[in-house]
Amino acid sequence: MTRVQLRGVGKIYPGRRGSDPVVAVEDVSIDVASGEIHAIIGYSGAGKSTLLRLVNGLEAATSGTILVGDDDITGLPESRLRAVRGKIGMIFQQFNLFHAKTVAKNVEYPLIVAGMPAAERRARVAELLDFVGLGGRAKAYTDQLSGGQKQRVGIARALATNPGVLLADEATSALDPETSREVLRLLSRVNREFGITILLITHEMEVVREIAHRVTVMDDGKAVEQGSVFDVFSNPQAPTSQRFVATALPTTPAEEHLADLRARHRGSLVSVTLRDGGVDQPVIFSTLAARGVSVSIVHGGVTEVGGRSFGRVTLELIGEETAVAEAITALQAEAELEVLS
Ligand SMILES: Nc1ncnc2c1ncn2[C@@H]1O[C@H](COP(=O)(O)OP(=O)(O)OP(=O)(O)O)[C@@H](O)[C@H]1O
Fold first, then answer.
1. Which pLDDT tens digit goes with each residue over 5-19?
2. Which of 155, 224, 232, 253 could be bridged to 258 by S-S, CB 3.0 to 4.6 A?
3. Nearest Cα to 182, choosing from 148, 142, 154, 207?
């Protein structure tokens, strides 16, 4: 069981040929609990890859401390870093497999480096390939595999030496949505069955929603928001988080779409947020029915986030003007409701 702790971590790259230094990561603190799946999300250039390289010690932080398990990797000499890296597995967007080697040889490679005897290696490789569902493809060459299968080989190889932490660098970005979900489900199993802590970076909110427990949102080198996936999705605070959430959740219609809805629906339009632990849907419908107001859902929906439900629906309310106004006032006391027209 391994936790990862970043405290005030910064990375400044020296400017090239007289240009200004680049602040890639600035004062980032993240606590990844042992056995947690923690996602770091951000747009291109936010500093995600740099952060991951600092965690596996490929690059040295300019400031702050990084603990992997009980090892403070900041300031460790290369010889000691190698031992810590042995406890960290890594998978990549482009898989980084050896094309001239078979599937089995790819997975065996880190075991050879670790000095494991041949008979044990064979047994371990067979066990790993079974786990990732590639038991029948041991002798195939990696260029005969689909993208999803290649990433399964990457995962088996990363797990070979029993790491406590798995770092995933945009691990599903090169895959189609269905294959991406299969690989994410496999990563969830890795986390659940072996208790491996996973730190993954991504620019896709769907990835966060699918498997992460907690999330850090990065923007311009800084951690601008952190929290449980449900909290960040259902109530994003930072503008960057709000933009990401809008890509993955039903939202209030944007202005141009709203104009279209208004043209097609003559009733009053209201947007209601449905949050696990918030107002019950029957309360909304009975409040409207009691005043003779009829209701249609015209936009949005309800979805699963972090194992809980969250939704935002736009409703068209039709009835007597005073009855609709009264119903809206009554609902505002119970629910998160925004009047759109
Ligand atoms: N070796 C380097 N030398 C100089 N600047 C760098 C170096 N690596 C990254 N940077 C800069 O640091 C900033 C953060 O880059 P980084 O690759 O970590 O972002 P990212 O969020 O991973 O983006 P992407 O998703 O596009 O990879 C960028 O401005 C980038 O140009």
1. 999 999 999 988 889
2. 253
3. 148
Query: Is the minimum distance from the CB of 50 to ligand 1 under 6 angstroms?
Result: yes
Q: CATH classification of 4-248, choosing from 3.30.70.260, 2.30.42.10, 3.40.50.300, 3.90.650.10?
A: 3.40.50.300
Instruction: Compute, in angstroms, the gap from residue 250 CA to the centroid of ligand 1.
Output: 31
pTM equals: 0.90
Question: 58 CA distance to ligand 1 centroid (A)?
Answer: 14
Is the shortest distance between the CB of 46 and ligand 1 below 6 Å? yes
Domain 255-339: CATH superfamily, name plus number: ACT domain (3.30.70.260)
DSSP letters, 120-186, are HHHHHHHHHHHHTT-GGGTTSBGGGS-HHHHHHHHHHHHHTT--SEEEEESTTTTS-HHHHHHHHHH
